[in-house]
User: Fold DHS-like NAD/FAD-binding domain-containing protein from Karstenula rhodostoma CBS 690.94.
Amino acid sequence: MTSSSNRPSVVPQQDLESFQDHLNKSTRILALLGAGLSASSGLPTFRGAGGLWRTHDATQLATPGAFSADPGLVWQFYSYRRHMALKAKPNPAHYALAELAKKKETFLTLSQNVDGLSPRANHPEESLKLLHGSLFDVKCSDFFCNYLEKNNYTDPIVPALAIPTSEEDPTTTSALASRELDIADENVPIPELSYKHLPKCPKCKRGLLRPGVVWFGEMLPEKVLDDIEEWIQKENKIDLIMVIGTSAKVYPAAGFVDRARAKGARVAIINMDKNDVPASGLDKRDWFFQGDAARILPEILSNVIGELKETPDAAADADNAVTEASS
Ligand code: APR
Assistant:
């Protein structure tokens, strides 16, 4: 059960009241999501602690240049991220936002996250705009080929990208005996992979497939940007933008905060780090809710979404616990 009812409040009462009062009156609401939303699901963020993958700055691997220089390494990084995202579960913040989208039809969520956790929390598709694509889309890297496959959850996508395992107990033959190695750790050796090991395009049969995410230096998906623009232009006013678990340093995504402010939106920031405010700073009408989004969102949205009901993942956890306990 992901209920916040018996928990002590995690936000100051006065801020909670003024925010909820405004939320009640708001119809045109935006949310800008970042990696901090999925932090309590166990997925690392990009900047600060956890931003290194082996010896590489995670953002340095997210470029077309890195892929052409070493597609094997970049695929190992993304295959690892696909694997970790599939093992992770949506947390109460994902469910709270999905619920808000069901309650307020004019609420639009702009997510920088590629981990698939908002879709898995059943966030309505039409009100979720994936600014940076998805780890589970794959497309051809050949300039002249337009192959795109959505929702590819094959893990590993090719055998060579399987996470290496260690035999924990050589006397045991059960599957439990092998343990996945953490290839984010530079001390764990990984093989050098070349063209022949990597996924190829089934359409042109020539190009390598690549993750369907937006890399630094690339354009955001045109249709996604058009949909957002249409929503913004539709009326003169925006009531509220929630800036959740993002350092708001990457553009054009971060620019939506100022776009919303220019249309009158009040800004609510939900972040662990008090210093992570958008470039335009804080206004006296803004809110800063400091702490874990997974704790804060169910509470501050509760006047609209009510208590979160039991979630499918939580139910699966409970079932597993029963099975394990009785086996
Ligand atoms: N709850 C709320 N906020 C959190 C939590 C948490 N549990 N844990 C971390 N944060 C905050 C951090 O304080 C930080 O401000 O989440 C933010 C994460 O920031 P980044 O790592 O910069 O991630 P993000 O803003 O999503 O990055 C934007 O950059 O590398 C690219 O394409 C990538 O989409 C990504 C983009």
Observations:
- The first helix runs from residue 13 to 25.
- The first strand starts at residue 29 and ends at 33.
- Residues 108 and 126 are 9 Å apart (CA to CA).
- Residues 314-327 have pLDDT under 50 and may be disordered.
